Amino acid sequence: MTEATHHVDPHPPGAHMEAELSSQPDTWARAADLRTEQSLLPARGERVAVIGCGTSWFMAQSYAALRESAGHGVTDAFAASEAFVDRGYDAVVAITRSGATTEVLELVDGVRGTTRAIGLVGDPRTPLVDLVDDVITLPFADEVSVVQTRFATTALALLRASLGENLDAAIVDAAYAVSAELDELLLIADQYSFLGTGWTVGIAHEAALKLREASQSWTESYPAKEYRHGPIAIAAPGRVAWVFGTPPVGLYDEIAATGAHFEHRAIDGMADLIRAQRVALERGRAFGLDPDTPRNLTRSVILDS
Q1: Which residues belong to any copy of the SIS domain (predicted)?
Q2: pTM for this prediction
Q3: Are residues 139 and 28 in the same domain?
Q4: DSSP letter, residue 71
Q5: Other Cβ atoms closer than 10 A to 74
Q6: What are the C-alpha distances in Å from 93 to residues 77, 102, 141, 158, 172?
Q7: What is 140-185 written as a DSSP string?
Q8: Measured distance CA(138)–CA(146) in Å, rounded
Q9: In terms of domains, do 207 and 149 share one?
Q10: How many Cα atoms within 13 Å fall on the side-chain side of residue 176?
């Protein structure tokens, strides 16, 4: 009789996503040190439009809020498909992991010769590189998983560092977020509302997207104070209101009164996003899904002409 052998899948569901999200403390540190690349970004005082699709659009929102609130100049974030870039901008910053997204390429091609375009991309061997005036590549943050984790936050880390932020504390928080125990309720909740203030509104939108992509969960996202203007009606026991950044005064009591779980950690918003990414990964696995290859999604959206 021969002894039975057990095949171990070298790539279990979500293996790439797990490895990539866990590497974020290291990729943020590398991005923060890229001073030459950061110098290619718009100078203080320039009017800037930041564009992207999906996750990259949400990172554009966070960068725009940070840049303008820090006094670096007017900064607007647009979904590439709905951007208005004929408003006298000095530069357009295009964020795209793949460098092949149709809407981004169309917009950048449309401003050639009139507005300086800077690309922030994961894969340097892509069409975007030939369309922009300057390109910042982050190949060490590129990903195999369709679900974005580290490219998005690494791009934002570079953008934050370019504004003069010291990311040491954020990187420490990220190391905590990678391994911190997750509350069981976060893994089994019926519904999630992600809330942010200032630059973390983009983070909240991204957290909601991650759970939808990886686990097909019911998620919503809002500026934190907007939650009171209707969305709080869905708060109930077994549901989660997750706040990034500093919660508005009184919001905890209002959510507690509904019986919903109020989730908040006093850590950097990007680091707290890692915790949400981990929830998305574990829920996807629990539902028998492969978070690396979400339903109906591809790594890059390339539209037919």
Answers
A1: 36-177
A2: 0.93
A3: yes
A4: T
A5: 16
A6: 9, 16, 18, 13, 28
A7: GG--SSSS-SHHHHHHHHHHHHHTT---HHHHHHHHHHHHSPPPHH
A8: 17
A9: no
A10: 14
The rounded distance, in Å, linking the Cα atoms of 59 and 218 is 22
Mean of the per-residue pLDDT values of the chain: 92
Report the pLDDT value the prediction gives residue 254, as an integer from 0 to 100: 96
H helices of 182-238, in order, are: 184-188, 200-215
Q: Quote the distance between the C-alpha of residue 213 and its chain's center.
A: 13
Tell whether 297 is covered by a domain. Answer: no
- Answer whether residue 293 is part of any domain: no
Give whole-number Cα distances, 187 to 191, 277, 285, in Å: 10, 11, 11
Closest CA to 63 of 54, 53, 51, 46: 51
Range of the domain at 208: 169-286
Mean pLDDT confidence for 222-246: 95
In a domain, 21, yes or no: yes
Q: How many other CB atoms sit within 10 Å of the CB of residue 146? A: 18
Best CA proximity match to 30, nearest among 171, 144, 126: 171
Q: What is the DSSP string of 11-45?
A: S-TTHHHHHHHHTHHHHHHHHHT-HHHHTTSPPTT
Task: State the CATH number of the domain containing residue 253.
Answer: 3.40.50.10490
Q: Is-contact 160 64, C-beta < 8 A?
A: no
Are residues 149 and 29 part of one domain? Answer: yes
If one compares 125 and 196, the residue with the highest pLDDT of the two is 196
For 150-195, the pLDDT digits (tens) are 999 999 999 999 999 999 999 999 999 999 999 999 999 999 999 9
C-alpha 228: how far from its chain's center? 24
* Residues 220-249: b if buried by 16+ CB within 10 A, e if exposed: bbbbbeebeeeebebbeeebbbbbbbebbe
Is 182 within the bounds of a domain?
Answer: yes
- Structure-block tokens of residue 20: 């990539």
